[in-house]
Here is the input.
Amino acid sequence: MVINAMEKIMKDLFSEYEHKLQMKCTCESCKEDVLAMVLNKVQPKYVTNEEKVMYIKAGYVDKQEMTTLLVKLIECAKLVSDNPYCKTGKKAEVDQSSTV
Ligand SMILES: [Zn+2]
Here is the structure.
């Protein structure tokens, strides 16, 4: 079993800071968009079991790297919030320009 440790770390970070990100839409679709976007920006760290994820995560705690991850997360949350791809967001977009 191959797991990207960053995925778990980012999910945890996201749920921890979700209320501070002030996203316009926080539906599952938008949250997944943020996660996918931020995970594309960070180097993946593959491990073979859940326990190893915790070791990787422990390595990030109280480090400059965690701040870097958080900054990336905030950037992505803002991008998705400004241009949501979910139905709610699309609707607002269609209202603005009906020719798409
Ligand atoms: Zn949404």
